[in-house]
Design goal:
3% strand; 149 residues; signal; glycosidase; mainly alpha; Lysozyme; lysozyme activity; two-stranded antiparallel sheet
Length: 149
């Protein structure tokens, strides 16, 4: 788990340096990535999800249809090209969270736990129970981040 987490953190660290900001920390992005796909950079599109964040077309659209530099949101394949690229996919997640940021677990604060719920359950369903496998991977990752902290 720790080597995978360190890989995820290294992967998303350039986002902070590139000033592609949003409500999620690099660590939070890394743990969501870890929980949803083990941060597998080789994932392409399968069924209705794409990339290491397993993003749907609707999620990408709700996030404002971000694209790779020089691409066009209306072009065929723009969704897939963005969501299989780690940086564009992370930007998609950031923009989605900016739109749907809320206190899903009603603990009085909006934090990474809420963002993990929004990512998995959507902006309108984040109060529902998480599936146990995703939740356990996420909690384990966050606990590791806090011990490294």
């Amino acid at each position: 788990m720790v080597p995978a987490l360190l890989l995820a953190l290294a992967l998303f660290a350039p986002l902070a340096a590139a000033q592609q900001t949003g409500p999620l920390s690099v660590e939070c992005l890394g743990c969501i990535c870890e929980a949803v796909s083990n941060c597998n950079r080789t994932l392409t599109c399968s069924g209705d999800v794409c990339g290491l964040f397993r993003i749907t077309w609707a999620y990408w659209s709700d996030a404002g249809k971000p694209v790779l530099q020089g691409d066009n949101p209306g072009a065929d394949g723009a969704y897939a090209r963005c969501t299989v690229d780690p940086y564009c996919a992370a930007l998609t997640v950031q923009q989605y969270m900016t739109k749907y940021s809320q206190d899903c677990n009603q603990d009085g604060q909006v934090d990474c736990t809420d963002f993990a719920r929004i990512h998995r359950l959507g902006g309108y369903g984040c109060g529902a129970p998480l599936d146990p496998v995703y939740e356990q991977k996420f909690v384990t990752c966050i606990n590791h981040v806090q011990t490294l902290g």
